[in-house]
Task: structure prediction
Amino acid sequence: MSVATESLDSLLKREYQAGFVTDIEADTLPPGLNEDVIRLISAKKGEPEFMLEWRLKAFRHWLTMNPPSWAHVKHPPIDYQDIVYYSAPKTKKDGPKSLAEVDPKLLETYEKLGIPLHEREALAGVAVDAVFDSVSVATTFKDKLARIGIIFCAFSEAVREHPDLVQKYLGSVVPHTDNFYAALNSAVFSDGSFVYVPKGVRCPMELSTYFRMNASKSGQFERTLVIADEGAYVSYLEGCTAPMRDENQLHAAVVELVALKDAQIKYSTVQNWYPGDEAGRGGIYNFVTKRGICRGPRARISWTQVETGSAITWKYPSVVLEGEESVGEFYSVAVTNNLQQADTGTKMIHIGRNTRSTIVSKGISAARGQNTYRGLVKILKGAEGARNHTQCDSLLMGDKCGAHTFPYIEVRNPTAQVEHEATTSKISEDQLFYLQSRGLSSEDAVNMVVNGFCKRVFKELPMEFAVEAQKLLSVSLEGAVG
Amino acid sequence: MLSIKNLHASVDGKPILKGLSLEVKAGEVHAIMGPNGSGKSTLANVLAGRENYVVTQGEVIYRGKNLLASAPEERAREGVFLAFQYPVEIPGVSNIYMLKAALNAVRKARGESELDALDFIALVKERMKLAEIPEEFLYRSVNEGFSGGEKKRNEILQMALLEPRLAILDETDSGLDIDALQVVARGVNALRSPERAIVLVTHYQRLLNYIVPDYVHVLASGRIVKSGDRTLAQELDRQGYGWVAQEGAAASA
Ligand SMILES: Nc1ncnc2c1ncn2[C@@H]1O[C@H](COP(=O)(O)OP(=O)(O)OP(=O)(O)O)[C@@H](O)[C@H]1O
Ligand SMILES: [Mg+2]
Result:
């Protein structure tokens, strides 16, 4: 066996570092789903009538749908009656009003995860909204942001405090009929984050949400809505972890982004849900619908994702380019190790004239991991002068893993330019030997080569998260090489 | 410092080195010359620990220990350095990042403290002057898009930074213009010291005008067939390898 393969094989014995369980009293519904459960969720959150109606409409539609079968992933059928649809840490009253009311155990959990929940610790300039199982626990920096008109709060709070905005934009990008998981989410979503940046305002800090699944058998169905009004700018980051459990947990989130004229939204994800063990036991099913729309001219939406966790990842952060000269970007690193499966990519829908999109996808497969890029570039009739460039690279570690590429291109306007480049390569022994001959351990050599491979994507992440992503990547491929 | 005895090595099952012996003492400079395909790079790779190069017989003792037993990175940390005939490109990894990681790995093994960013920059800039590499090369990806000569200079920079005990330069002079040749010579001469040894693989006597070797060896068909002082290189320059090969064949017959 070669040194490289040997190192890679030992790399695969990674440990999941966020796999602890927090012992906390929770208000949990029994497993199962019906209209009563939905009414209960809605009631627990004190929602206005329109919200309940919307949920029920989605639920009724969901009942008519089947899970998608086209993705390149395999898993046993999911029993939707065996999932807990609501689990919230218990609090004295209705919910925590300030940090002081938040259960100290929760704060400890976030501390373990390295999240700067206390404002004084968040000097780095990150405002954090933390979602624990189903509810949003604390939102930092809220007041400071409110002073310049930015709303950054838990989704359930937005439903109560800003119903007009929610009603106007919820489902406007991802309708409740969109797909099986989006419909389910629309019916049962329990919390998430809400952001509204008013006209001409540049959000002065990174906004950030951390999701954590703690309760056993629970599903997490968060809903995020980010609206950047004309000329506004916001950069948003989401991070996720979950404890190690033997059973699979479902995570079916929906994220909607709306960028109006001249607005820009950067949305970055570092996804580190529990991936399951070496034998493929446990792990999160990450079935997520993320879509943004560039509503006005020169609007711009960028998705950057680093996907290292989850047993199965199924997500296609997309951009609908409606406004003239609007820009959509997708930068992705997806790692599959052990028995992980990822079917991920993007959709760029060009509607307006001179719209542009860029897709950079880096897939890394190790052990028996299966990594699929699935991307759609659609240029509609009116998209005069539209342009897309897609770069799709796969890196294979070892010979038991797989990389697959499914680029779909539909062009209905002859002036459009669409370019697609794809490469698949094995991690190079020459590169590893070169670095080792300079004194680097084989583990460090692998990390260096892999990080280099991902550079174009990491570059798009906010600085502090780029560092985190690099670390995460080495942990994901870690396990004492050499 | 380095003692190679009756070394036999194969690449992908094909025997390349066939009973090579060589003694290199601290303070010495050895030049190894020989026809294309004779096994010079194979020797260099075996010494650096490349894994698909299998040693089937013989031994290599480096500073009193069996060199062949250790992994490539351990050899590097013990002071073995190979300047590659074909330096490898590593996209997305900046030169400075790699250099710093390498230097700190080696320093750590020597029991020295790791250099922080500021000290490192100061040191690397000084060594870049020696290798005549413009600063922008620090921030480019390792060897990516470097010209042939720039890659070779980058190898010299790495050598100057890591300060190896045993430096093996595999045709670092090939494809260089006269100025670059002098850069290589300066880099090697700066490293020359009573505690260090240098093995130069080269096709050209020209380099040996700048770096005067203590010994010159001819490698042919996987063995050292002739050794001498620098005049041997001059003779080879005039007459080619034919006569040595014949002599070697006669000697082994
Ligand atoms: N992977 C391989 N499989 C088979 N033969 C190989 C392999 N690698 C090297 N060789 C052969 O080994 C022999 C020695 O190669 P080596 O690179 O050591 O020569 P060299 O003396 O460095 O030549 P040059 O002066 O051209 O650099 C050559 O005949 C080469 O073709
Ligand atoms: Mg050679």
